[in-house]
Amino acid sequence: MEYGQSIVDGEVARGQIPRLLDIVLYLCEKEHVEAGMIFQLLEDLTEMSTMRNCEDIFGYIESKQDILGKPELFARGKLVMLRTCNQLLRRLSKANDVVFCGRIIMFLAHFFPLSERSAVNIKGVFNTSNETKYEKEAPEGISIDFNFYKTFWSLQEHFCNPASLTLAPTKWQKFTSSLTVVLNTFEAQPLSDEEGDANNIEDEAATFSIKYLTSSKLMGLELKDPSFRRHVLVQCLILFDYLKAPGKNDKDSPSEATKEEIKSCEERVKKLLEMTPPKGKEFLNSIEHILERERNWVWWKRDGCPPFEKPPIEKKSTQDGVKKRRIRWRLGNKELSQLWKWADQNPNALTDPQRVRTPAVTEYWKPLAEDMDVTAGIEAEYHHKNNRVYCWKGLRFSARQDLDGFSRFTEYGIEGVVPFELLPLDVRSKYQAKPNERSKRAKKEEIKGAAHQAEENQIATPASEIDVEGGRADLEASAAPMDTDAAITTGNISHGGSPDEQQKQGSDTDGGQEPGQIEADAETEAGLIDGEADTEVDLDAVG
Amino acid sequence: MGLAVDCRKWDEAAYRSSIVEERESQCRTVFRTAFPPSPHPNPNPDLIVAASSDGSVNSYSLSSLLFSLPVGFGNDRGQNLLNARPQCFLQGHDGPAYDVKFCGNGEDALLLSCGDDGRIRGWRWKEVSNLEGNIPLQGGHLKPILDLVNPQHKGPWGSASPIPENNAIAVDNKGESVFAAAGDSCAYCWDVEKSEIKMVFKGHSDYLHCIVARNSGNQIITGSEDGTARIWDCRSGKCIQVIDPEKDKKLKEFFPHVSCIALDASESWLACGNGRTLSVWNLPARECISRISTRASVQDIVFDGNQILAVGAEPLLSRYDMNGVILSQIQCAPQSVFSISLHPAGVTAVAGYGGLVDVISQFGSHLCSFCC
After folding, report:
1. Residues A180, B75: contact at Cβ < 8 Å?
2. Nearest CA in chain A to B346
3. What average pLDDT is seen over chain A?
4. How many CA atoms lie less than 13 Å away from B111 in the CB half-sphere?
5. With contacts defined as CB-CB under 8 Å, which chain A residues touch B45?
6. Residues A523, A443: one domain?
7. pLDDT in tens, A401-460
8. What is the pTM of this model?
9. Would the CB atoms of A148 and B363 count as touching at under 8 Å?
10. Residue A391, domain extent
């Protein structure tokens, strides 16, 4: 009861109430008591307090906005809070308590989500009570164009309630004729920069008023005021925007002729805004931007105020799709892109001891050399020279590392490329004969050799054919015709290499190559025949 | 047509004259308008006097014109214009009336007009305005209290030249003298009291278009067809200065004449329209300050504070500052504008082809347009 007593003690009590509120708020937050209690308490408190105390209570509400806004509390108390605030606003004077009113409205804007339905004016109702009164009778003894005065201010009636324009065509006609008069007058008297500056300073000097006064005596001054002009012109733009917005059903939307009128008027208004002095162009841009946003709001409301948060699943899938596509397009396909990135992702790849390097030629040719060793007795089927990929790779290596060995390919075929040191002595000698002699001899034996080939050189010829075809396929696949490829094809000229290649080769080599190869094959055969005659026959039969 | 033809009592002569009348009214031109002096500067001008090509000098009441207009009508240009009935009708001259001016103030104000017949006529404005409410045509019988005729030049064997026409008149501020720009390339200074010529200003080589009085220096300035403007001393009748706006230009324009001149309130600035240029002169310094090129030839100019209002052979009222920058251009009813007059309250009246008078309010809106 200690607290209860101190509440009664006037002065101290005021300091105590926030503490009590704190306690209730804590209990609500921890769900020890019903969550709506704090809101109920605050409402009751504001209802029984004077306006001055209400300001303190509202200060408390503002300070606890974060806690009050927590979902579990907010869900229970939002309606109560809305009611409390609206009650407060109703009690406040709109003229004298502008700051407090503003605070309450700011709080509401922060406290409630943007899409809170009670605040969006879902039907787009206009505040038709905002009526602009003006003089209906010409005053005595004052020289003004009273017709113009009336025409000018009668526009406000339409700005105040744009919906009325769409209903009655006569009203629309009256509006357009009045607007034309006003725009003509504005256009006839463009404001200079000086006038703009002079009047602008006046405007800034805290003489802000909510509405312009409509006294006919002020008309002349107002027409010279650029900000006054701007207000009217912006009103026009807002009205046009409303008229252009599609209605709920088709019959609401304006006719084509009306649309044309709106369009021409709008262009004139925009031009006038651009002409109106202090920074007319910038002003117009900002206004257009703002109106664009307003249009978005209208559309949003028209679509039934869909929530702004997108469901996460949908979001993810769309994002992924975008990502994939983007990477694929960067370097043609995923593999290439990964290759491109590889270096960046593995900066140590070059120094890695585990790194795969180009094997030395001697290492690489070892399997073939072993096959070539007659003593090993490898069957032709498993001979490495029948492996096209192996041969092709080997030739590339040799071309880089062992040019001497590589050059022997033209004479001896794939087996000639194998480094000597890998071969047993007897095999080695075969590939060390003088090339020139051989080529001469070869010519004479060409026909015979061909016949030979058909019958006996089963191992060599098909191999070279396959080899060559493989080579050609590779050649076609690879971008640049390299030496290796050319060398591979040389053996196949009689089988129909492309004319380009034939020209490149030159007739000399052309004559020499094939016979040389054939002979080499023949000789190889001579050595091989003993051991492999049976197999050859078998192969033949199979082939 | 609006002509009711009654074939029972067919009067061909009347029919013919009615057609001629209508044709004439369509091709009428208003050469000058003037607002009568009013004791208070603030109220809107109510009456406006127009001198037109049929020799009439009529006054019109704006308020009754506005009253007869449908609401909002005065603002729409180019629609069927109101055929205004004059408040008061004066048959001023035989042949066109070229200029109309008010002389003096208040009760004693005189309405002066001049025309092609070489006369200057004056009426007491009070009497004219008191005719209000009467049948308009009655004013035609009102006797002028002043009737001045330009002298004829004597030729050999007693022959006399035709009476030279008066193209413009100016009044000094004391109301004693009237200056007339005449067609015999002379300017005359008339004594209003004695109705006799006080001074003849000779020197221009061609007829005069315009004349203004520079009261502060007891001088007048005239503009002539010969392409120059001259400043005259009224005491000696000598030419003090010849202003030749074309002097600096190599090529003379097709119409080099000085068609209009205007003085500002301080009487130290002179605007001079010749052909399609408008030049502004500082009189104390005797220097041309700016030269403005216009699209159409300038036909009348007037100073409004330190701004210049100019009209010409196009339906536009242009407002320039002293440096020649266009401040505004207001579309107006007459296709070619001959006269511009400014009321102290800021209302401007322009008049020209078709007998059209367009009254523009200080807002730049069309107060009313009517056809004389």
Report:
1. no
2. A143
3. 73
4. 30
5. 143
6. yes
7. 888 888 888 888 888 888 888 887 777 777 765 545 444 444 444 544 444 444 444 444
8. 0.60
9. yes
10. 361-542
